[in-house]
Amino acid sequence: MRDFARPGAAQGPDNPLVLHVLGARPNFVKAAPVVRALAELGVRQGIVHTGQHYDALMSDVFFADLGLPEPIANLGVGSGSHARQTAALLVGLEDVVLEHRPTLVVVYGDVNSTLAAILVCAKLNVPTAHVEAGLRSFDREMPEEVNRIVTDGLSDILFATSPDALSHLAAEGVDPARVHLVGNPMIDSLFSALDHLDPAPVRARLGLPERYAVATLHRPGNVDDPASAKELVNAVLSVSERLPVVVPLHPRGRTRLAEAGLVNGENLLIVDPLGYVEFLSLVRGATLVVTDSGGVQEETTMLGVPCLTVRPNTERPITITHGTNRLVTPAQLPAAADRALADGAATPSGELPPLWDGKAGPRIARVIESWLRGGNLSPAGQSVSPKSL
Ligand code: UD1
Ligand code: UDP
């Protein structure tokens, strides 16, 4: 049995190592710009893939499209209930952290892999940074909200993507000196891909006309319960009476949504999840997007595509105030689609979210590099030094 009481020496300040823990589709998109920017600064780093998402179309395609380096480890935890998946993540990640003894572990977003990594590091006294800190839906029925609160409570360095996050973290007692408003690395990835986002080839491949809607649906609150799934599917069917709808379907909802009637029809096309570049190409050319995704709310804001989010709340209100996003219930969806098709993508403030300029990755990398060199979070900040395990 491993002797946990006597781990080897940690990576000291002379030989720092940054580990990024990634597990699910949106993690890859958020991490790519940070990994690239740290590489440009010459920081030694590695990716640990937890294997939470494992289908080629949910994982490999993102490494290829985003130019992410091969992971140094893939834990292959796979799917399961929250307890089983999180338990497998904890066990696997503890071994990896003890083996590699990183100076800093960077986690992304709000998935179970994020939560597990932050817990493991907190118990092993390994410093951590959370990218996309401080978002709150104030809805604890969402598993992601629980993950966000715990992750932010235990992170040493917190990178916020929007100003509202700063007040949420302050209200929860997080020292502001540990928080950095850096912009949105998911938008960096979008900027990097922009020149390759051509709707024509994917439209041709899928046989879509010029005007079409894209729908993505995977939130447990929408797809797990048969009655909710049915209500949602009926609403999407109603949108498909107005214009063709293509649904790149996340594996989570597949069976339940098909049982509820989300099947190929004259104006409805159900396809496998798409790779990053192909998906965003489709979104860029869309007349309307219907979604319950977090990231898609942000991407449509930047691409200026009207987005109807079928959720009672969002942890990304900036996509409503500074973007093209609207929250709707399934019952409101058809009328909201009519309005969006008539009005296009008006943004209430007329301004895009601050610092969503494609430079969040370099900002994050500079904070991390300076911390690795000096052990300080910020000139005024509480110091969290690289520690031994
Ligand atoms: C997870 C995140 C969610 C995020 C989403 C991004 C948690 C709690 N949830 O949800 O916040 O929005 O990823 O896509 O971490 N499955 C496959 N192949 C895969 C992966 C999953 O078939 O490669 C199926 C399995 O049946 C699995 C189900 O999808 O049980 C759910 O996967 P899981 O990773 O637990 O959660 P997501 O719903 O994907
Ligand atoms: N995405 C993709 N292919 C798809 C659906 C989504 O590449 O078929 C991308 C999308 O552009 C965004 C990310 O996946 O960058 C969002 O992931 P998801 O909606 O699964 O998670 P969430 O953001 O809701 O956590």
Topology:
Elements: E1 18-22, H1 25-40, E2 45-49, H2 60-66, E3 73-74, H3 82-100, E4 104-108, H4 112-124, E5 128-133, H5 143-154, E6 157-160, H6 163-171, E7 179-181, H7 185-193, H8 199-206, E8 213-216, H9 220-223, H10 226-240, E9 245-248, H11 254-259, E10 268-271, H12 276-284, E11 288-291, H13 294-303, E12 307-309, H14 318-321, E13 325-327, H15 333-343, H16 360-374
Parallel strand pairs: 1-2, 1-4, 2-3, 4-5, 5-6, 6-7, 8-9, 8-11, 9-10, 11-12, 12-13
The structure holds uridine-diphosphate-N-acetylglucosamine and uridine-5'-diphosphate.
The site of uridine-diphosphate-N-acetylglucosamine (UD1) has 19 residues, from α1 and α5.
Describe the protein in words.
- The protein is an alpha/beta fold.
- It has two domains: 18-184 and 356-374, Glycogen Phosphorylase B (Rossmann fold); 193-343, Rossmann fold (3-Layer(aba) Sandwich).
- The chain is 43% helix and 13% strand.
- It contains 16 helices and 13 strands.
- It has helices at 25-40, 60-66, 82-100, 112-124, 143-154, 163-171, 185-193, 199-206, 220-223, 226-240, 254-259, 276-284, 294-303, 318-321, 333-343, 360-374; strands spanning 18-22, 45-49, 73-74, 104-108, 128-133, 157-160, 179-181, 213-216, 245-248, 268-271, 288-291, 307-309, 325-327.
- The strands form two sheets. It has a seven-stranded parallel sheet, sandwiched between helices. A six-stranded parallel sheet has the order 10-9-8-11-12-13, sandwiched between helices.
- Helix 1 packs across helix 16 (360-374) and helix 3 (82-100) packs across helix 4.
- The longest helix is centred in the N-terminal third of the chain and has 19 residues, at 82-100.
- It is globular.
- Mean pLDDT is 93; it is low at 1-10 and 377-389.
- Bound molecules: uridine-diphosphate-N-acetylglucosamine and uridine-5'-diphosphate.
- The site of uridine-diphosphate-N-acetylglucosamine (UD1) has 19 residues, from helix 1 and helix 5.
